[in-house]
Amino acid sequence: MKNTVFGLFLGWLLNASISLASLSEGSEHEDKIWTYAKQDTSWAEYKATCSGKFQSPINLRENETVRPDEGEVDDVRAYSILQHLSTKPLKIRINNPTSAKVRSLRFTLKTPLIYGTVKCHHVHFHIGQSEHAIDSKKFYGEIHIYCYHNRYEQIRNAVIYNKKDGLAAISILLEINNDNKTDNRHIKNMISMINNNPTGTGLTYKSLQFPNFLKNMDDDGVFYRYFGGLTVPGCNEIVKWSVFRMPFKISQNQADLLSALQNGWMKTQESGGWSELNDLNKTNLEPVANARKLQVKGDRLVILCDKDNCTPISSGLGKVELVLIGIGSAMALMIAFSIAVYLHKKSEDADEDGDNEALTF
């Protein structure tokens, strides 16, 4: 037992150190190349933090879930966030998907969307294959809405402090609609904005209205809630996941356009992995999906929530582990303070969200 707890403590400290280092310009991890095409080898650098018991994504099986108690309110309020994300145009900016350090197309909100205990920072795409699976079924892609606990000023601070409830991610599975070939106009507008800004929008914010995700998912309102981690190195186990059961459907035409865009980005980011998977002289290429492989669920609790009821979930850690993590938190805070001072000096003239752009999720 002592060895297990001590191992957890050391693993947590190492995870925090990698998180801090990854945000520090010029760190040893910044230049490490990792790819989706070669996850078994290129992620080896992060084995210590990407092989924990609370990794993501996972296969979600409905017969292995529990229902929330009546009247228990979702602390993240995932359903409300989806409801209000599409009520009006929002000011957003697009990252540069051609950058070697970027692993997904990201739409960052100028003003975070605040609901429950979280502030929502950005929306990003996984194209070519979903990360999560529902009853062993994978989908065409997956949209993630990343939020952070409202006690933090910025999303990067949630990663730096590495607390178990630091982040919340809302997942929307993408499925190709073979019955209706009509393009979703909001997805069409998003694709047009990407095409008109092939290297991102820089520091310029533009107006964009997100799709009504719930309407296109038949407003099922049911989602899976579990505790997990980031799906990129170093896989910080600090994420409350909300994965909606019903997929959001897009047309085959829009899937083809997204795949073509993905092909263009990934031939830069995946380096050698690209040439092994695709011949650039061919047409109708399958994209190199920016999706992490499924991880072991283990004995984790998965709650089948609905729009009215969802049990707040914790990491399930015991008292001894929490004490050790508390000590580790104090140590991490001291390290974080030093790095924060350094980063502040480096970015005095940068925009408020500039440091957040270094994040890979």
Structure description:
The protein has 361 residues and is an alpha+beta fold. The protein has a single domain, classed as Carbonic Anhydrase II, CATH 3.10.200.10. Helix content is 30%, strand content 19%. The strands form two sheets. Strands 2, 3, 4, 6, 7, 8, 9, 10, 11 and 12 form a ten-stranded mixed beta sheet that branches. Helix 1 (2-23) runs parallel beside helix 9. It starts with a helix and ends in a 15-residue tail after the last helix. Residues 16-30, 272-285, 316-326 and 339-351 have low confidence and may be disordered.
Give a brief outline of the structure.
The chain has 9 helices and 12 strands. The chain has 361 residues and is α+β, with helices and mostly antiparallel strands.
Keywords, please?
361 residues; alpha+beta; Carbonic Anhydrase II; ten-stranded mixed beta sheet; two-stranded parallel sheet; 30% helix
Question: Alpha-carbon distance between the termini?
Answer: 34 Å
Fraction of residues in helices?
A: 25-40%
Low-confidence stretches: 16-30, 272-285, 316-326, 339-351
Number of domains: 1
Strand content: 15-25%
Helices and strands in order, then pairings?
Layout lengths: L1 H22 L15 H4 L16 E2 L17 H8 L4 E5 L11 E10 L2 E10 L5 E2 L6 E9 L5 H7 L5 E10 L8 H12 L9 E3 L4 H4 L6 E6 L10 E6 L3 E3 L1 H18 L2 H6 L25 E3 L13 H28 L15
